[in-house]
Design the sequence.
């Protein structure tokens, strides 16, 4: 009994709630759920939390062993094969994809969630995308994230931290990240004025034309022993692919051509609407996968039929509200665009005014500098003019002095000419006298030579007379004759001595005359040099330079010879 009571107590103490963690494409949420909640209760709570009304596209997915499964709405959460972790982790993802995103996606939140999921599938290479399409899609993704391109704000390298291209595309070409960024930016710059919602819609419109968009692939066999094939389930129908080719199906069964899909254990049967066509059977070995295939087939077929019916009141209201909201946002965007344009124009006008102000300030500064330079130049020119005036006065004064000197020199020259004429006359007379004196001197020299000869003869006679006198003292000789001879000789010698004295006096006069001639020559040379120096420098007032005069003094030279 005690054991039974303790067991009942434990049952009563079991928790009435459990923790759940739900991850959307851009957020994570945690909820406390009641034990009795069904999958629909948790799903509706998540949709209400994020504000999603187009709930038929989405589901809560969880991982089971080596595959995944979707939470069933009509079954309790804890009764399903959900993980036993706490909190239980679910991913809120798109389970079904629209045929035309532009017509079917009404809410912005629905569109945004699809955009994030498709973008992740492309980057993870779950959806094949060509390099060209990848770059274009990346440009719309950048527009949705960063808004309009602004070269002043979006500098090179601003996409370095963003994952925009699949790794396969990056490895396919030998291009640097800067080169890829340049290509993406070139497209990005052309998306100006596109809002985030419009950029995301453009992204989805391009992505929905990709071959693998919205396709769920499963491994199957056509019979129990055949090679494996791939089954693709999407909004258009069922497709059979080769294992190595997920782009081009070998066979397709559109929903409009399928009458019935039956499932029995591991066997699927597709019955065409046309009874003449052959029934297609395929096999899948995993029970969980078979249930998942059946769920996707039912859900996609229901949506296919729903699209071809009139929209429900709820959908019509949603579309009307979305239309009004888009119209309102369009008006707001137009107003914002006008305000932005006006602001840009005002900024441009302001920049233009600032530029013009800067130019005017620069011109004013340059004008002030030019004025200062002009004033400095004017002062310098005035100073130069004053200096030039003073120099002109000085030059005029020098010119007057030069003219006065010239006139004085002309007068001096006239006087000098007269003096020179007189001096030449005197010199001619002196030369004539000198010639005469020289002739007399030569004559006197000759006479002196004769006198010397006579003197020598007298000396010889005197010597002979002395000899004879000595001889007289010895024998008896007529003394009177000897005395007379001696007296004659002495008289002749005295006469010749007087002539020599007269010749010496004449030579002294000749020397004095030569000295006087030399002094006259020296005086003439000094006067001629002074006249030549003064006549040489004549100042030209008009040209500020000296002219050389050719006037030279006269020079006369005479060489005198004599003792």
Sequence:
């Amino acid at each position: 009994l005690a054991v039974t009571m303790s067991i009942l107590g434990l049952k009563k103490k079991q928790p009435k709630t459990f923790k759940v963690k739900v991850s959307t494409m851009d957020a994570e949420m945690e909820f406390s759920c009641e034990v009795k909640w069904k999958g629909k209760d948790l799903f509706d709570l998540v949709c209400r939390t994020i504000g999603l009304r187009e709930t038929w596209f989405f589901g809560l997915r969880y991982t089971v062993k080596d595959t995944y499964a979707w939470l069933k709405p009509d079954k309790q959460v804890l009764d399903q094969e959900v993980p036993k972790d706490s909190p239980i982790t679910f991913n809120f993802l798109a389970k079904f994809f629209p045929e035309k995103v532009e017509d079917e996606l009404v809410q912005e939140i629905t569109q945004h969630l699809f955009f994030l999921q498709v973008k992740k599938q492309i980057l993870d290479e779950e959806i094949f995308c060509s390099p060209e399409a990848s770059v274009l899609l990346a440009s719309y993704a950048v527009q949705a994230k960063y808004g309009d391109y602004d070269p002043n704000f979006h500098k090179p390298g601003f996409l370095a931290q963003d994952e925009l291209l699949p790794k396969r595309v990056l490895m396919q070409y030998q291009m640097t990240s800067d080169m890829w960024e340049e290509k993406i930016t070139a497209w990005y710059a052309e998306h100006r004025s596109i809002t985030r919602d419009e950029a995301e819609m453009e992204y989805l419109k391009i992505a929905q034309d990709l071959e693998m968009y919205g396709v769920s692939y499963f491994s199957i066999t056509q019979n129990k022993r055949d090679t494996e094939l791939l089954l693709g389930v999407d909004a258009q129908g069922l497709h059979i692919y080769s294992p190595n080719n997920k782009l081009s199906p070998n066979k397709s069964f559109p929903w409009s051509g399928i009458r019935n899909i039956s499932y029995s254990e591991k066997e699927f049967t597709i019955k065409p609407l046309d009874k003449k066509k052959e029934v297609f059977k395929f096999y899948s070995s995993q029970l969980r996968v078979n249930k998942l295939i059946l769920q996707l087939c039912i859900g996609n077929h229901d949506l296919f039929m729903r699209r071809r019916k009139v929209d429900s009141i709820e959908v019509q209201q949603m579309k009307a509200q979305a239309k009004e909201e888009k119209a309102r946002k369009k008006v707001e965007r137009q107003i914002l665009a006008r305000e932005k344009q006006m602001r840009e124009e005002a900024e441009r006008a302001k920049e233009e005014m600032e530029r013009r102000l800067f130019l005017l300030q620069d011109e004013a500064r340059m004008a002030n500098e030019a004025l200062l330079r002009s004033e400095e130049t004017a002062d310098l020119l005035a100073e130069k003019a004053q200096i030039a005036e003073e120099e002109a006065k000085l030059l005029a004064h020098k010119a007057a002095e030069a003219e006065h000197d010239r006139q004085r020199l002309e007068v001096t020259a006239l006087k000098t000419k007269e003096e020179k004429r007189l001096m030449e006359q005197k010199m001619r007379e002196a030369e004539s006298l000198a010639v005469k004196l020289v002739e007399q001197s030569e004559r006197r020299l000759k006479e002196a030579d004769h006198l010397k000869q006579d003197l020598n003869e007298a000396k010889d006679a005197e010597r002979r007379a002395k000899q004879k006198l000595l001889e007289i003292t010895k024998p008896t000789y007529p003394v009177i004759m000897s005395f007379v001879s001696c007296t004659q000789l002495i008289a002749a010698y005295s006469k010749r001595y007087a002539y020599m004295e007269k010749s010496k006096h004449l030579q002294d006069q000749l020397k004095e005359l030569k000295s006087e001639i030399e002094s006259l020559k020296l005086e003439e040379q000094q006067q001629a040099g002074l006249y030549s120096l003064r006549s040489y420098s004549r100042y030209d007032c008009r040209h500020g330079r000296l002219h050389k005069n050719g006037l030279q003094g006269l020079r006369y030279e005479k060489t005198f010879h004599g003792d």
